[in-house]
Each structure stands twice: as C-alpha cells, then as structure tokens.
Amino acid sequence: MMRTFDLSPLYRSTIGFDRMANLLDSINRADHSQPSYPPYNIELTGEDQYRISMAVAGFDESELTLEVKENTLSVTGKKSDESGERKFLHQGIAARNFERRFQLADYVRVEGASLTNGLLHVELVREIPEKMKPRTIAIGSGSAKQDKPSLVGDSSNDSASGDSADKDSAGKNKVA
Description:
With about 180 residues, this protein is of the alpha+beta class. Residues about 155-165 have low confidence and may be disordered. Among the domains are: about 5-35; about 40-80 and about 90-135, Sandwich (Immunoglobulin-like), CATH 2.60.40.790. The protein is about 10% helix and about 30% strand. Strand 1 and strand 2 form a beta hairpin.
C-alpha cells in the first residue's frame, strides 16, 4: 500500500519550519526510489547515541567509503573486479556496488565506524549546543524596569570617548 502525504497545510501555518517540511518531502520521495540493498538497521544505543548497522558481507574495508556532507551520510561500496579470477557454480551472495544515503538531523555527527563479521557499524552521536538546550528562567517579583542599567567597564561609555555629556552629576554613565 502506497501512502502520500500532503504537506501544504504545514507550509501555510508555520514560519521557519520550511526546511523540516522540505526534508519530510524529500524523505517521502527517496523512500520510493531508494533500493533496498544493502539491508540495514538503525538503533538507539543511548539517550543521544545511534548506530547504523549495514549487512555488507563480501566487502573489505578498502572497498567501503563513508562520507558526510551537508548533513547527509553516504555509504558507498565498490567491489573490485574479480570476475576473471573465480568461476562460480552458484553465486547467491550479492557483491554489487551500492550507495546508501542517510539524512542526518542537525547536531548529529559520525563518531566512528567498524566492520565486524560482515556488518558495518556506524556510530552516531547527537550533541546539542548549550545555547540550544532548555533552560529555566527565574521570575522576579516587582515591576518591570524600563531603563537598562549601565555595564561596568563598558568601553563605549568611558570618559576616553570624550562624551562628558553622557555622565550624570556623580560621574556615572547615563543610560540612554
């Protein structure tokens, strides 16, 4: 069963989320066109840690390439041409070239990769910057002040600037 999603209401009712809507749109299109080889799993290994495990039996480390560019992880497998060296009676292990792309969210980076027992494990971690993390704002009592206090050591209001008109009678900087 094929499902399509109309994201036009999202474009009409949100501001600043157009990148996310475009991402959802591209993922929806990519799911229908991307091949299923090689099979893979995506695991949550910790609160902000992920692992992509891909079945790449028959590939050597030298035949695999991982590249991150603009929040897209590309895993490429290029098999060396050995068809003249062996004669198969039956070839059931897929040894074809592939390229698999994964769209990474903001602040997700590749931490490392390993190849074990025919599985390529790519370790990912999400590191949210401090300024993006939630914080609690203290609520003060009293009325809100209209004037901003002057900053101590603010070089723009020092007497070296030559503006003595910006000082009050006590010699302190006035607030504009």
